[in-house]
Amino acid sequence: MPVDFPEYAPVEYTAPVVANKPVWADDEDKIAEFKFNALDGDTNRVSFDGTYEIEKDTSRPINLHGRTGMRGRGLLGKFGPNHAADPVVSRWQRLANGEVARDEEGQPVLEIVFIKRKDTGEWALPGGMVEAGDTVSVTLKKEFGEEALNSLEADEVARETLKAVVDRIFQNGDEIYRGYVDDPRNTDNAWMETVAVNFHDKTGSAFGHFNLTAGDDAGSVAWVKVTPDMALYASHADFVREVYSRRSADYGSA
């Protein structure tokens, strides 16, 4: 429970698109019926970071990580944790002769698939929200296919081929993070949590002739060279640094 702070006067805000009760958002009129800190039907209201408390007067969850300056849900659909999944698809940049490229300091060059967000213009991982009834593993593959390969616009034959490619790459993933993320959408009563998983294409040839193609939610998509100072959306820079550290450590098996 946060320390008492009588002077604290957060803004109350829930975006109209959320307050209008779309199917993906909670209906606050029924908040007393929600089963917080539990699997509530198809909605997972369990936090990766432990048990969160509930405000007695509003029945709203209290952000485990402290005050944000905003009450309500802001742009988030669910009270409490809003679960996401972030696939970090990587490969070593290769020269024409097939050798791994190196930077000026002799370090191997890592590339990761990023999308450019339409709302902020920042590079971000091609992840998304875990929909009610879905698992993290399903969401990881679905979001990558939709955001980075534009699978929704492909014909049936191409879609099945893309699915097979994604299934093959996503067979063996390395979980790099699970928990709360520092996201600009977080409020005192609703917050983002994610599972980030690295899928490394060791040979750099898994996608074959398939081009990365941005889906509806992305402005563009590309294999981007990882640099120490690259600016990324929300906590994505932390995930990328962790992936680079792990991949560099086991470079001998790249």
TrEMBL record:
Any one Gene Ontology molecular-function term assigned to this protein's record: ADP-ribose diphosphatase activity
Segments forming domain Nudix hydrolase: 92-249
InterPro entries named among the record's database cross-references: NUDIX_hydrolase-like_dom_sf (IPR015797), NUDIX_hydrolase_dom (IPR000086), NUDT9 (IPR039989)
A Pfam family reported for this protein in Swiss-Prot or TrEMBL: NUDT9_N
Gene3D superfamilies listed in its UniProt record: Nucleoside Triphosphate Pyrophosphohydrolase
Native source species: Monosiga brevicollis
PANTHER family: ADP-RIBOSE PYROPHOSPHATASE, MITOCHONDRIAL, NUDIX HYDROLASE
Protein name: Nudix hydrolase domain-containing protein
